[in-house]
């Protein structure tokens, strides 16, 4: 019986019966153990004429959602993401109401942030805030970042502008409008205004105290003169702008008479104390002008963007704003009319505070220019005095030179005169 050589794996698979392949141990080298041959095979097969080889099937890797092979670590990460997403959906079902897509995204994002805090071992920041309701009730509470994102529908990057721990990075004034909240950053005042409440972060600061007192007085029913009440978020925005501009005006009124007095005294009294007071006043004017200029630029940018103003008007209403056409669509026609009227009121309100801010900024710039002109005049006066001192010094040098010339002449002619001192006996 002639043996047929093995020319290809397919022929070997056809000639020999498919015997099962024992799986290799985990973590060891791949070694294939030859199975025992049945007794019915011929001796030529036993001697190696025909070698029955099993069909090798490559191990199948676990597949991901996109069809690619994934490792064990990637599978664990996908399971964690699925758990976080499921947690966000449960939170969304419990809260309910409002925009469905926005709340689902906020809950999902807050769940992921919380999972990140737990996995990294980082303590979640907790803010101590004052909550003021639309009815004037005030309460102090502690709220975590996760709860803040869930209740306001904000994202993590939105809270950077009002985070008190980042006051060095976000010192520029800003007014950010989101779907369910307005973020206010006006100097030391940092707050989040929503449809029926406002959260004030650094309420112990001068700006926070001024804003809180002004807002509570505006929410008092006794101060309403029988007219229609403005929406709560507009009351918060107006109180914030008014408190900020009033603080700038008060500071300007405090600096202005002091600078005017220095400008009258300086031409006649050039002392170190008066010059130091002028330097400090000039520094205060530079700071005041910078703050007023930043606030003015913020108001100009807000007035130049009607999309943001319309987003403020539709807050808390069943209205949507088309981003392309920038048209407000409401389920109730009356709400659309009210939103359009509020848009005009907001524009007039912003223009009013813009004029006051420009007036404050212009007055600070005029005082600063006067102080700089006084410094220039002082420099010219000091230069003239230096010239007088240099003139006197030059006259003294000429006189000294003349005396030295006379002494030189006397010395030259006096060399040949006898003094008889050498012959005088002591």
From TrEMBL:
It is found in: Membrane; Plastid, Chloroplast membrane. Belongs to the CorA metal ion transporter (MIT) (TC 1.A.35.5) family. PANTHER family: MAGNESIUM TRANSPORTER MRS2 HOMOLOG, MITOCHONDRIAL (PTHR13890:SF0), RNA SPLICING PROTEIN MRS2, MITOCHONDRIAL (PTHR13890). Residues 61-105 are annotated as: Disordered. GO terms for cellular component: chloroplast membrane. The lineage of its organism: Eukaryota, Viridiplantae, Streptophyta, Embryophyta, Tracheophyta. Magnesium transporter that may mediate the influx of magnesium in chloroplast. The chain crosses the membrane at residues 394-413. Its main location: membrane. This is Magnesium transporter. Keywords: Chloroplast, Ion transport, Magnesium, Membrane, Plastid, Transit peptide, Transmembrane, Transmembrane helix, Transport. CDD domains: Mrs2_Mfm1p-like. One of its GO terms (molecular function) is magnesium ion transmembrane transporter activity. It is a multi-pass membrane protein. Residues 63-73 have a biased composition (Basic and acidic residues). Pfam families: MRS2-like.
